Amino acid sequence: MTPSASQEPPGAGLGDRFGRVATDLRVSLTDRCNLRCTYCMPAEGLDWLPNPSLLTDAEIVRLIDVAVHRLGVTEVRFTGGEPLLRRGLVEIVRAVAALTRRPRMMLTTNGIGLARLAEPLAAAGLDRVNVSLDTTDPAQFKALTRRDRHADVVAGLAASAAAGLLPVKMNAVLLRGVNDDEAVGLLAFALERGYELRFIEQMPLDAGHTWRREEMVTGAEILAALRSAYTLRPDPDARGGSPAETWIVDGHAAVGGGPARVGVIASVSSPFCGACDRTRLTADGAIRSCLFSQEETDLRGALRGGAGDEELADLWRKAMWAKPAGHGIDDPKFLQPARPMSAIGG
Question: Over the chain (346 residues), what is each successive 10-residue block's mean pLDDT?
Fold first, then answer.
């Protein structure tokens, strides 16, 4: 990619110097979580953001409105932390669904509480969900998450399918020496229920900064394990800006019809930065141009200081125009962002 010589964003959308345009907004609703996954945060949890620093429900909806109507955003994904912990979630979804240029809305969740909220969320206008589940074994789940909630996640997946939040997608992270033998079992679990499974390489976003590349289970390893039990064909649908490279699983179908798919998000071993179409809003109102950014642009201060919609949009454009070419994980000078994954939003 060759950067533009211009020092200012030339258009109305969220373009950057390398010709990419962000149309997918990830909105973190909270940094809090009710699990303590070993690859994400310590057993005692983290110091949560103080409530006054969090965007209010109305502020979140206003910034999404700016993104949709002034900046060309067409998809909004609600994340956390754990977004189901946000009390106003259903009303936020309802308000965004009422925008005149209604974006497609997704939710990434650990699934705890989803059995109760799937139907209200679907009625409010949510389109679909991604639910994290790293193991089919309840005992292993308890060890990985430090919580005995496996049955709740399974129930949340089923409730999402019943509510029509399709396709229901599962996210799984494999850890070497822990659950790296579960690739085939997780796919069997998903196929049996018509879910679409996504394996995600473990990324350097843990709170303890203990990630080591040599300990990561790579996308290539995951695919080799899957192919030992299933016939996978390249997905004919264009990948576009999707982070997942997907394959058709021969002989299986998804809920709602169509072929079953499985995907791998190989952010580390096979980065897709050149096609990235994402922009991120943290729960305390900061714009991040990349998951691994070292810099942020504060919108909360401007918003609470009385900035108009076009002023907010201009700040957002400038933040995205400065987006780097790639995340730089392979650069010897790479540094993990100060915020852990739970405080950034997926």
Answer: 66 91 96 86 70 95 98 97 96 98 97 97 98 97 95 98 96 93 97 95 65 79 97 88 90 86 87 87 93 87 98 96 78 57 61
* Residue 89 near residue 121 (C-beta atoms within 8 A): yes
pLDDT value for 330: 59
Instruction: Answer whether 255's CB lies under 8 Å from 166's CB.
Output: yes
Place of tokens 């390489």: 201
Dihedral, CA of residue 231, residue 234, residue 237 and residue 241, to nearest 10: 120
Label residues 292-327 b or e (16+ Cβ within 10 Å = b): bbeebbebbebbeeeeeeeebbbbbbebbbebbbbb
Report the side by side order of strands in the sheet with 128-132. Answer: 232-234, 245-253, 259-265, 196-200, 169-172, 128-132, 104-109, 75-79, 24-28, 278-281, 286-288, 297-298
Look up residue 53 and give its DSSP letter.
G
Q: Collect all residues with Cβ–Cβ distance below 8 Å to 110 and sequence separation of at least 6.
A: 33, 34, 35, 82, 84, 131, 132, 145, 153
> Which tens digits make up the pLDDT trace of 54-111?
999 999 999 999 999 999 999 999 998 899 999 999 999 999 999 999 999 999 999 9
The residue whose two tokens read 């998809």 is: 75
The pair of three-digit structure tokens given for residue 188, joined into one six-digit string: 């069997």
Among 134, 118, 46, which residue's Cα sits nearest to residue 84? 118
Q: Is-contact 191 249, C-beta < 8 A? A: yes
- Closest CA relative to residue 105, chosen from 59, 154, 149, 60: 60
- Torsion angle, alpha carbons of 185, 186, 189, 193, to 10: -150
Q: How far apart are the first and last CA of the chain?
A: 25
Domains of the chain: 14-344 (3.20.20.70)
Instruction: Report how far residue 267's alpha carbon sits from residue 236's, in angstroms, rounded to the nearest whole number.
Output: 21
- CA 204 vs. chain centroid, Å, equals 15
d(CA 141, CA 55): 32
Burial (Cβ within 10 Å: 0-12, 13-18, ≥19) of residue 341: buried
